[in-house]
Write a structure and sequence with these properties.
With 233 residues, the chain is of the alpha/beta class. Helix content is 42%, strand content 15%. Strands 3-4-2-1-5-6 form a six-stranded parallel sheet, sandwiched between helices. The chain binds 3-methylbut-3-enyl trihydrogen diphosphate (2 copies) and magnesium ion (MG). One 3-methylbut-3-enyl trihydrogen diphosphate binds next to strand 2.
């Protein structure tokens, strides 16, 4: 019997803007409410024994949104990082950011590095936040690094699995379950390589409405899936 609790759950947190619009609020209010869903799902993931929870928080394409929204999102990341330290420590959660960090404001980069250091030894769960991330960007930066290594030693890379260590996700398991909220059924340039055999779950709830119960329901749905990896069982 394989493990029914996924080791790595990943979430494309979508629908904040629509949540706000439905209430006649500004989009940023939806992002703010979404932070409570992050807290709720992270807590539930720890309680359920999920080892890795990863969240798609900001894509490379999201830089193309209006300046005010991008600035508000960066400011929200900053305050969340400051506010969540005690909760992460109490729950034994290690915090990691993956993505194109060079594009992030310096103050945010510094805050992220500080929180990563402070939580580095926590072992209950790893919370990965994908910031300024896209799947094609990841594959591209990995290919460039690999090409540089191959130029030095043409026999250095032999197997497809050797490519994994050049991706920003090197050392982390591939997601078992990828959830997307808000009813959209697309990958939006997320974990293109790592999601090769992930189970997908698309739910209609908007991200600010996705709390503990929704997370538990997603795990129950995952438990019913039959993963075959191309083989015959
Ligand atoms: C997800 O919510 C958060 C980010 C992409 C940063 P959206 O902001 O995409 O909300 P909708 O899809 O417009 O409702
Ligand atoms: C995907 O949501 C990115 C994140 C959740 C961070 P988007 O709202 O940016 O995706 P599209 O534009 O609907 O594909
Ligand atoms: Mg969206």
């Amino acid at each position: 019997m394989e493990n029914r609790i996924p080791v790595h759950v990943s979430i494309i947190m979508d629908g904040n803007g629509r949540w706000a619009r439905e209430r006649g609020l500004e989009r940023v209010k939806g992002h703010l409410e979404g932070v409570s869903s992050v807290r709720a799902c992270a807590g539930e993931a720890v309680r359920q024994g999920v080892k890795y929870l990863s969240l798609f928080a900001f894509s490379e394409e999201n830089w193309g949104r209006p300046r005010e929204e991008v600035d508000a999102l960066m400011a929200l990341m900053m305050t969340s990082i400051r506010n969540e330290v005690p909760t992460l420590m109490d729950n034994g959660v290690r915090f990691v950011v993956l993505g194109n960090r060079d594009r992030l404001p310096l103050s945010l980069r510094t805050a992220i590095a500080g929180l990563e250091r402070a939580t580095a030894k926590n072992g209950a769960m790893t919370l990965i936040v994908f910031l300024s991330y896209s799947g094609k960007w990841d594959i591209f930066q990995a290919a460039r690094k690999m090409a540089a290594d191959l130029a030095k030693d043409p026999s250095g890379v032999k197997d497809i699995s050797d490519f994994d260590r050049y991706l920003v996700t090197a050392g982390y398991p591939d997601p078992d379950l990828i959830i997307r909220t808000s009813g959209e059924q697309r990958i939006s340039n997320y974990l293109l390589w790592q999601g090769a055999y992930s189970e997908f779950l698309f739910v209609d709830e908007l991200w600010p409405d996705f709390r503990e119960d929704s997370f538990r329901r997603a795990l129950a749905e995952y438990a019913k899936r039959d993963r075959r990896y191309g083989k015959v069982k």
